[in-house]
From TrEMBL:
Keyword annotations from UniProtKB, A to Z: Hydrolase
Any coiled-coil regions, as ranges: none
Residues annotated as domain AB hydrolase-1: 32-243
Name used for this protein in its record: Alpha/beta hydrolase
GO molecular function per UniProt: hydrolase activity
Segments traversing the membrane: none
Source organism of this protein record: Zestomonas insulae
Length: 260
């Protein structure tokens, strides 16, 4: 595999600094890939996936902690219910401006996939391709039930310590931002429909057939409503984190998609 160099950055925003990290192959080709993490995630929780992705695709890979997560500054207050569509004009825009990203590929996992859709829709000239992984396209009862069950599990002794390892004293905020946002009655009608209609670039949607936070209806809706060419790949015997459960398949699929 090609050698990859890593670099860290601090991105200034109106509400505090974001932590970002990049992985760059020696022979870089094509637009960089920007990764958007899931509801409880951060740069560190991507583990070795960004480096592997850079090696397989020959592209620079950039990941960042959203405000309130990981090593980034605490979020100022309660997360608004517009947080998914807000990312494209907020932290994501600040990252692109300060790192000089004129063109990019955007990839998001889980809620990060929904944010990636918004970024592709808001930056149609700059976004060369969109990849969603285990993304939710709307709110359904099965997803809400899974989130309630996870909330009960995190209330057990020692469980919040798992989040504190990555988010420090922000861990309780991270948990409540996830649970309370998705279970809010005012959020029941949320969907990606409007943003998907504005996506013009090629789209790859990856999804596990045993995803506990979203059935196959989610990637089917994503690929059906996007205006550009769309590819759906459902992974058999796979849950909510395909890049961790089947890394070789995910890396090969993404590499082939970007090469085409």
């Amino acid at each position: 595999m090609p050698q990859v160099s890593s670099q860290t950055f601090w991105i200034d925003t109106a509400h505090g600094q974001l932590f970002a990290q990049s992985w760059t192959p020696l022979e870089e080709r094509g637009a960089p890939i920007v990764l958007l993490h899931d509801s409880l995630g951060c740069v560190a929780l991507w583990r070795d996936f960004p480096e592997q992705l850079a090696q397989h695709c020959g592209r620079r890979v950039i990941a960042y902690d959203r405000l309130g997560f990981g090593r980034s500054a605490a979020y100022p207050g309660t997360l608004p219910l517009t947080f998914i569509q807000d990312e494209a004009s907020g932290s994501f825009r600040a990252l692109c401006q300060q790192l000089g990203l004129e063109q990019f590929v955007v990839m998001g996992h889980s809620v990060g996939g929904g944010m990636a859709v918004g970024c592709a829709a808001a930056h149609p000239q700059a976004c060369q391709a969109l990849i969603t992984e285990s993304a939710q396209a709307f709110v359904d009862s099965e997803m809400r039930a899974s989130i309630r069950a996870a909330d009960v599990q995190f209330a057990e002794p020692g469980q919040l310590e798992r989040l504190k390892k990555y988010h420090g004293e922000k861990a309780q905020w991270v948990l409540r931002a996830w649970v309370d946002s998705w279970l809010a009655e005012a959020f029941r009608g949320w969907s990606l429909d409007e943003q998907l209609a504005q996506v013009r670039c090629p789209l790859l949607s990856l999804h596990g057939d045993h995803d506990e936070y979203g059935s196959r209806r989610h990637p089917e809706r994503i690929t059906a409503l996007a205006s550009g060419p769309a590819t759906l790949q459902v992974l058999a015997d796979c849950g909510h984190v395909p890049h961790r459960e089947y890394p070789d398949t995910v890396l090969a699929t993404i590499s082939a998609f970007l090469a085409s």
